[in-house]
Amino acid sequence: MTQGLKHTLINLLTSPLVTSATHPVRRNKVPIFMLHRLANVDAGIRGHSLDLIEQALDYCLANGYKIISLEQAIHLSRQPYLNRERYVCFTIDDGFYDQGEYIAKLFELKSAPLTFFLATDMVDKGHWSWDYQLEYIINKTTSDELTITINGQPHNWALTGSAQKTLCKRSLQTLLKKLPIASTEKIVKEISAHLKINVPQQAPDAYRTLTWPMVKSLESDLIQFGPHTQSHTVLSQLDDDRAFAEINGSMERLKQELRNPVNIFCYPTGRETKDFGEREKIMVKEQGFDAAVSADPGYLNLTRSNDPFAINRFSFPNDLTTFKKYVSWLELLRS
Fold it and tell me: Domain range spanning residue 309?
């Protein structure tokens, strides 16, 4: 099936008439979407289109979907009655300036709830984690290739175009997330030296972070904030003490700065069994959180029990047709 035909078929099967007829299938499942950065072509940053986010919000508002907060969604999942509306939920991770200045303000304009998970060192110190530093290094280099040894295994990537650089970044991030954090940070420094790219201690303009005054000005009944660790480090890379401190410390900073942070944690990177596991879920539970969200795709089920400390989220898609598939009944056929 061609891509064009596939999009036409999805649009037909998510039309108002079909959506209304399939409401009983969809009504007790909530898709929770995970947003990240806006695309910045000049800086080589892949991300969302603000226009597409607006189209998605307008589609929900015009077609009988009710946008609710993450707190509301989790509350509904614990109620003993069937819910009759088609709910949709949006979250956003990290703490970059563009996320607050453009995405959060768009949600405000549309009167749509958004839960914003902050890595608090980003706001406190202009900190940027090793994965974003790696992205910066690969995007900035003029070298044609990278050869490096990781865990005794030699690796080589061509860097002659944007597609090759994207492959290199993704491959390296996958490899480095498996190592202890000290090893990962050491290798990123080696890559920086090898490719002759100086990495500033504070985030440069393309990675500009939010400030506390801006966060405070955004906090409202619509825009809520929750913890996403302090340094945006993959928790499985850390020992027990540091993992605990990352979880606890991020929530404590939010409590110090904000009126009413949500009591829901967000795992960095968020793939269960890879980036977090039973150890992290126990820590989150013992620290008194109501729930935690992952980055694994899937729905929040309102009629069956969910793992409250590994709630699934869909990555926000790259086109409106795919978004329609996730919010309608179609994706449920696969899941």
Answer: 3-127+207-334
